[in-house]
Amino acid sequence: MRMIRAAFLRLAAPVFCLTTAAGAPAFPAQERLMDDPPAGPPTVPTPDSSAGRADSGNQIYKRLLALTAEKQKPRRRAAKALANADPSTLVPLVDTYFFAPSEARRDVRQLLERLSGAQPGGRYRDWLRYVGSRQDLEPPAGYVGWKGRLFSRIDPVYGRILSPEATVKLRLREVQWGGVPLDGIPAVDDPASVPADMARFMRGADTVFGVSLGGERRAYPVKVLSWHELLNDTVGGQPITISFCTLCGSAILYSAVGENGERLRFGTSGLLYRSNKLMFDRATLSLWSNLTGEAVLGERAAEGVVLQMLPMTLTTWDAWRHRHPDTSIMRPDPDTARRTGYRYVEGAADAQRAGVEFPVWRQSDALERNEQVYVLRINRAAKAYPLAKLQAERLVHDTLGGLPIVLVLDDSSGAVRAYERGALTFDPPAPGALRHLQARDGTTWWIAEEGLAPQAGGDLLPRVPGHVAFWFGWYAFYPDTAVY
């Protein structure tokens, strides 16, 4: 348990790497990511002029653009014209604040304070948090196209993703840049794997994500995925994606099959929503939430697609290979390591991280911000189980969303698994490696990856997909969550 907790605490800061001309990762400083606009000469966004867009909205965006001018006179003229604007102007004004050159930031900040009547602070992050909390504000017409053109200063593809016609299923004002362009953190696609006895690149205490599908077992080293954050692979004939948001500590296994049976391949968009990774699918450039699996912007969002979460086990390599001696394990690619400068050693990525935190306005002090919780969502009911409590109790009976469940923690590895339990109640397990549970009706149930298997034969009690997350990240999406 301590080993897994330590691994995730090391991953509290994300791998936000900018790629240098030589191809090696360069890690920007915290203030650079949070408050400074991207370097380089700005391209000039134009206000959205699609049919049906309000002229007043166009005028507002023209004036906001003028706020980023190099010369003071047009900035002051624009600020004066916007001094009595509708408070909804605050939404795109915060975006303007991020992209404004240093000589223009004072003018933009003064306008922010005037329109809001508030002084949350002088940094972009302060204002992003403030405008996120304003539930009463709706941005002027044309905001999606405006933000897309503004973000195209970072990467031209953002202009295509945030197009005026895009279906949007999130509060776009809370979408911010995470410090890398599209695919700036390279995903792992269809990696090579080797049998367990050939994994000389692994140590027993290294942490892995264990996957069992279609009769096949495979492990993915955390020391590799903590650099790449996204993996596309096939296990047991099932296309999968592991989306790993190191910011909020959530690594989630999804079925990567679309509505029409097509295989979906994902990459890192470089954009964040409530400090949570937004991935994109390569076929349509739609944005998807790491935490919910929902398509939240673009063509797939219009279709209402939500990925199916699958069970995955965070454990140690020793525990996984002893439980599943037939497992394979992803082999790190030395060519990728040389090209990117990544060191596939447990904890090596952590040394390159600057401890970046991104603003989230929705917060709760029910638990410490970065406390690790095992989270479940069943029939729209959400619940967080602090890992410290699970470590102390090892076995938890509960009912969530009307479904009776049992959570089991193996204290030899720290792995947590949740299962349906029907009408059964189980006895507390003995200390040590956990292989089976004894029900109070006298039956014995083996702890399998797919479910609890009755020793006497019969149907499994199915596994319930869940994962670890930091409390702040979970609460930002599920404020109605219960806490065990």
Structure description:
With 484 residues, the chain is α+β, with helices and mostly antiparallel strands. The protein has three domains: 191 residues, no CATH class; 136 residues, no CATH class; 112 residues, Rieske Iron-sulfur Protein (3-layer Sandwich), CATH 2.102.10. 26% of the residues lie in helices and 26% in strands. It contains 16 helices and 28 strands. The strands form six sheets. It has a seven-stranded antiparallel beta sheet with strand order 20-21-22-26-25-24-23. A five-stranded antiparallel beta sheet has the order 3-11-12-13-14. It has a five-stranded mixed beta sheet with strand order 4-8-9-10-15, with helices on one face. Strand 9 and strand 10 form a beta hairpin. Helix 5 runs antiparallel to helix 6 and helix 5 runs parallel beside helix 8. The radius of gyration is 24 Å and the shape is elongated. The N terminus is likely disordered.
Describe the protein's topology:
Elements: H1 2-10, E1 18-19, E2 25-26, H2 30-35, H3 55-66, H4 72-82, H5 90-99, H6 105-116, H7 124-133, H8 143-151, H9 157-161, E3 175-177, E4 188-189, E5 193-195, E6 207-213, E7 216-221, H10 222-228, E8 230-235, E9 238-245, E10 250-255, E11 266-273, E12 276-281, E13 287-289, E14 295-297, H11 299-303, E15 309-310, E16 313-316, H12 317-323, E17 328-330, H13 334-340, H14 348-351, E18 372-378, E19 381-386, H15 387-393, E20 395-400, E21 403-410, E22 415-420, E23 436-438, E24 444-447, E25 451-454, E26 461-464, E27 467-470, H16 471-477, E28 482-483
Parallel strand pairs: 4-8, 7-17, 19-28
Antiparallel strand pairs: 1-2, 3-11, 5-17, 6-7, 6-16, 8-9, 9-10, 10-15, 11-12, 12-13, 13-14, 18-19, 18-27, 20-21, 21-22, 22-26, 23-24, 24-25, 25-26
